Prior knowledge:
Blueprint: H1 4-19, H2 29-50, E1 68-69, E2 75-76, E3 88-91, H3 102-112, E4 116-119, H4 128-146, E5 151-156, H5 158-169, E6 176-182, H6 199-202, H7 209-214, E7 224-230, E8 250-257, H8 268-280, E9 289-292
Parallel strand pairs: 3-4, 3-5, 5-6, 6-7, 7-8, 8-9
Antiparallel strand pairs: 1-2
Amino acid sequence: MKVLPHLTPLLETWLLRVDRMRPAAHLPLSTALYKATALELAVLAGHLLLYPSGLAQERRTQPSGTTSATADGAQDATTLPLQPPRPVVLLHGFIDNRSVFVLLRRALTKDRGRHVESLNYSVLTCDIRAAAELLDRRVEEICLRTGQHQVDIVGHSLGGLIARYYVQRLGGDTRVRTLVTLGTPHGGTAAAPLMTAHPIVRQMRPDSDVVAELERPAPGCRTRFVAFWSDLDQVMSPVETARVDHPDLLAHNVRVSGIGHLALPVHPAVAADIRQALDAGAATTSTDSVSVA
């Protein structure tokens, strides 16, 4: 949509104004929750404006600076950078689309010119395993098109669970160097019990078969995990379920204080930490790193 370049800076300004009310660590829980809820409502309103722009699947493009085939089939490497950054795949959450990442995408591309792509899976998707297989095919296509052997993935909420299933159960650890999850129910969430009629919501429950599969041993998994979890995330119940706690996985859990579920993929402080994680690689420790948003 042509309005998007003009709307995005306005949305950033709007969120920053609301975020000035962000709670300090010493504020009472009720005050912190009130201010986090105000920010969540601002994020929701902005996202509803952008949602139609993300309904269509993203157009697949050739990243700048990669090799391209010439007429005789040879590879033109004149514009090939010495160390091109890995492509980043963005995967949205339940009943959402790629428009949720409009601000994060800008943050990831402005510094190092990363090639970033968003994958829409259908709102009719009823199985995490099927969505993980779709992700598998898309990652293979991206690697082939960009000439890269690996990608990084950032998944919000359900998107992070789909990506983890791909990495841990479908051999995706050979393709994914770092998986960043934002408010993902790694241990299952008990929130929104009225939505259990939807099959994919049932798979996000603590007692689901999918969660049980992810708790199985995963020796030798090569992907590094960075899990951002918020202490005021009302979609995660309990909030600690958004942590990656698995003895076989190289995981770093980052606690974000003072914001809710919807703000995780749009908040500038979180985006800065994501850029750092992708640049440096995830830590190999499960110790929390507190980040006050």
